[in-house]
Design a protein that fits this description.
With about 220 residues, the chain is α/β, with parallel strands linked by helices. It is built from ten helices and seven strands.
């Protein structure tokens, strides 16, 4: 099926959570890339992606890069799963679960989202998870070597997601000529303490330069 869709010029996205599922998805992308008549290559391909990519064998991370596959991930899942993931996976496999830093180190593009309605629609829980890898109470850590910086996380939520949909020339940045899709929040996401990220509130939302969600007025 992947070969057929590659030949037809489709961008593909597979949902894969476990390490075997991710390996299977990568194998399918590899087969599609080398199929006669396929338009997909690591250099000029359709930016195929794996949704979730939560548990990945360490040896498969470089394959994402080689095949031009985007890791489309939702950091908020760590806050839910860290309560039981290591017990079920074992420490060796768990060390490469939610491996955002390992992906970036390998040159793999990250595109972040929320996975709403499975998780909260708020991206700020995911931002907190990405930069701390701690539970919301701040009492438990999950393989902190894979946490990333605030800049890296915000990039994945904005420019990374725009890249995944071939929209990086007009979305993902505050820059002249871009779509002016942005939010105004009640705190500086680069300066507040990490726990305060969880309580960030949106006070204004603009789409295409037009305000679609104003800040509440005093009598609301």
């Amino acid at each position: 099926m992947a070969i057929e869709r590659a030949k037809a010029g489709f961008q593909m996205g597979f949902h894969a959570i476990g390490d075997k599922a991710n390996a299977m998805a990568l194998n399918a992308f590899a087969a599609a890339e080398h199929a006669p008549g396929s338009v997909g290559t690591a250099k000029n391909g359709p930016r195929n992606r794996i949704e979730h990519a939560q548990v990945v064998d360490a040896a498969d991370i470089p394959r994402f890069k080689a095949l031009g596959v985007i890791a489309s991930m939702q950091p908020c899942h760590l806050l839910t799963d860290m309560n039981w993931a290591e017990a079920r996976l074992g420490p060796k496999r768990a060390a490469y679960s939610y491996a955002w830093k390992a992906f970036l180190n390998a040159g793999v593009p990250l595109a972040f989202g929320t996975d709403y309605p499975v998780e909260s629609i708020s991206p700020f829980r995911g931002l907190y998870a990405a930069v701390t890898r701690m539970n919301e109470k701040g009492t438990q850590t999950y393989f902190p070597e894979n946490k990333i910086t605030r800049g890296q996380a915000l990039y994945a939520y904005t420019q990374g997601s725009a890249y995944a949909e071939f929209a990086e020339s007009h979305k993902g940045k505050l820059q002249p000529g871009y779509d002016a899709d942005f939010t105004i929040v009640d705190r500086d996401l680069y300066k507040v303490g990490a726990p305060a990220l969880l309580y960030t509130e949106v006070v204004g939302t603009f789409v295409g330069g037009r305000e679609v969600f104003p800040a509440p007025t005093a009598d609301q």
